[in-house]
Amino acid sequence: MTLLYTEKLSVESIDSFSEDVIQRIVEIEKRAFGEGGLHNEWLLVPFIRYGRVFIARIDDEIVGCAQFIRKWNSSETAYFYGISMLPEYRGGGLGTVFLREILSLIKIDGIQRVILSVSPQNKTAIYIYRNKIGFVEKSFAPNEYGCGEDRLIMELKL
């Protein structure tokens, strides 16, 4: 089944947007992260206008999204804010294929290094980032998002 989805996957960068696209991305983010994701237009629109937002489509349906911003004082570095897929498309490698495609696209844009932060308890994400994509652990950031909200900082050189 994953192969079928992988063959149908298309990846797009959003430069302009409609209310339908915004609402779909917000829905995917809420389903994936609750209040921890880009859960409203106020957060999502600046990412679209000033960062890079990618969507994954299967046929015409948006099934995933990912967001990046460039580092202000290092234009060859991007911060990978997050990735989310609808639950029915998780667990079969589609998100990994989506992320690999995005990384090849941002490399064309001159990005040479990608940084991300992830919860140290999110073993599945850490495994994917490290073993399937090639990120390496760079540092540990205690209380990054408040008391007890530690993060693992990872880096990938493209």
CATH architecture of the domain at 2-85: 3-Layer(aba) Sandwich
Question: Structural class of the secondary structure composition?
Answer: alpha+beta
Looking at the chains present, what oligomeric state does this protein adopt? Answer: single chain
CATH topology of the domain at 2-85: Aminopeptidase
In CATH's first tier, which class of the domain at 2-85 applies?
Answer: Alpha Beta
Summarize the structure.
The protein is α+β, with helices and mostly antiparallel strands and 158 residues long.
Q: What descriptive keywords fit this protein?
A:
single chain; 158 residues; alpha+beta; Aminopeptidase; 7-stranded mixed β-sheet; 5 helices
Structural account:
The chain has 158 residues and is α+β, with helices and mostly antiparallel strands. The chain has a domain at 2-85: Aminopeptidase. It is built from 5 helices and 7 strands; from the N terminus they run H-E-H-H-E-E-E-H-E-H-E-E. It has helices spanning 2-8, 19-33, 41-50, 94-108, 123-133, and strands spanning 9-14, 52-58, 61-71, 74-85, 113-118, 136-141, 151-157. A 7-stranded mixed β-sheet has the order 1-2-3-4-5-7-6, sandwiched between helices. Strand 4, helix 4 and strand 5 form a beta-alpha-beta unit. The longest helix is centred in the first third of the chain and has 15 residues, at 19-33. It is globular, with a radius of gyration of 15 Å.
